[in-house]
Amino acid sequence: MSEVNWPFRRGSTMSIRSAQGVYLETSDGQQILDAAGGAIVSNIGHGRERVVEAVAKATRDYSYVVPPWLTPSRQALADVLSEHWLPPELSRIHITSGGSEAVESGIKLALQYHAAGGERDRSLILARVPSYHGTTLATAGLSGHAVRKRGLESALTVFPSAPTPYLLRCPLGRNHPDAGEYYAQALRQAIIDAGPNRIAALLAEPITGSSGGALVPPDDYWPKVREICNEYGVLIIMDEVMTGFGRTGSRFGYQHWPFVPDILVSGKGLAGGYAPLGGVYASEAIGQAIDQSPFNVMFHTFGAHPAACAAAAEVLTIIDEEQLVERAAQQGKRLAEKLDARLRPLPWVAEVRGRGLLQAVEVVSDPDSLQPFPESADIANRIVARALDHGVFYYGGGTGEFRDMVCMGPAFTVQDEHLDTMAEVLAQSIEEVCG
Ligand SMILES: Cc1ncc(COP(=O)(O)O)c(C=O)c1O
């Protein structure tokens, strides 16, 4: 039998024949608790008939239509987004077919906005380390993700970068009260070093996803960064591919703090895993500047695919009807408490952290010095593999010097007994691998 999964390592093949709620079923009938919602994607769970029907209807009515034209499903998604999800400041919508494309489109909007205003020298994007923004050459270049850049380094553009707030490992000390100011000033310095008139935008996740293992910044960080970016004319592109649409217990991750980005990027949970889809949302000022310029915003052939838009409109409606954002906040708190109680006493757990239903555990060889295990020990991947043997799927995280994190992002419908299993199986797997 030939394999269809060539990009992945041989031996890692799983074969799933069905999925329902928060469970996957393998071809040989094993039930797997999907504690990661796939790649932190499945936010309403598997097998929702309403979404299946919406996709079927769109496919029946019109299979493919060029992205700039409207279909009822595209209109429905635009209406749901603007009436129920996006803040009034972000009125322009551009739909892509995935996260990397959406990030890249966001970057292009920022560049074209500045070029339209006569600032063509603003050609640099400031990014942060650790971070992840996608797998195309541009987004991989911007990602502070050493492991996913390996073998590509010579072809990747090197962009200016600032450190991502990492309270556990803050150079001022663990959970230092001045950490927000420290990291905000580090970002200011990165802008100054690169040349303030050269930076088009800051690209950042509000809460860092798997690359940093759910790193939540201190409360004063984002408002300070907003001020600094305003001061230097730098746009903020918020990468909410992982954190968007309720994952962290608010509609978007940035909404935990009092500021608004200029461009917002989404993917993953937008269509809940029922279809591939991404989206970029920009301010009216950016939209108008590009409208009045001679520049095009080019589409990808499969951007805003009609069936995928139908899926997303239905998924977002279900999230609202079932109040699943509030549920993500509530179940996220419970998960954090259960993880804390079961995992913190283990001698290898440096921290349990996250917000809402994006939670992670960082594993080290010595929690006092925070010394990680050697990279060659491949601890996070081994924990994930061991847990899979116990019937639970977690998402490995961390990269390079920031490593050995295990991330969780189940569907917002997850029940208390699933949260108990997630804490128990993770503790057991860590003990078995590290002990
Ligand atoms: C924060 C963030 N940005 C961008 C991406 C890239 O999205 P995609 O894999 O859909 O291209 C990801 C994927 O993990 C992500 O987590």
Would you mind describing this structure in some detail?
- The structure is a single chain.
- The protein is an alpha/beta fold and 435 residues long.
- The chain has two domains: 144 residues, Aspartate Aminotransferase, domain 1, CATH 3.90.1150; 271 residues, Aspartate Aminotransferase, domain 2 (3-Layer(aba) Sandwich).
- Strands 4-10-9-8-7-5-6 form a seven-stranded mixed sheet, sandwiched between helices. It has a four-stranded mixed sheet with strand order 1-2-3-13. A four-stranded antiparallel sheet has the order 11-12-15-14.
- The chain is globular, with a radius of gyration of 21 Å.
- Bound molecules: pyridoxal-5'-phosphate (PLP).
- The site of pyridoxal-5'-phosphate (PLP) has 15 residues, from helix 4.
Q: Any key phrases for this structure?
A:
alpha/beta, Aspartate Aminotransferase, domain 1, Aspartate Aminotransferase, domain 2, 2 domains, seven-stranded mixed β-sheet, four-stranded mixed β-sheet, 13 helices, globular, binds pyridoxal-5'-phosphate
Bound molecules: pyridoxal-5'-phosphate
From the alpha-carbon coordinates, what is the Rg to the nearest angstrom? 21 Å
- The CATH superfamily of the largest domain is Type I PLP-dependent aspartate aminotransferase-like (Major domain)
**Number of DSSP strands?**
15
- Which structural class matches the secondary elements? alpha/beta
Portion of residues in beta strands equals 15-25%
Largest sheet: 7 strands, mixed
Globular, elongated, flat, extended or rod-shaped: what is the shape? globular
Helix content: 25-40%
What is the name of the CATH topology of the largest domain?
Aspartate Aminotransferase, domain 2
**What is the helix tally?**
13
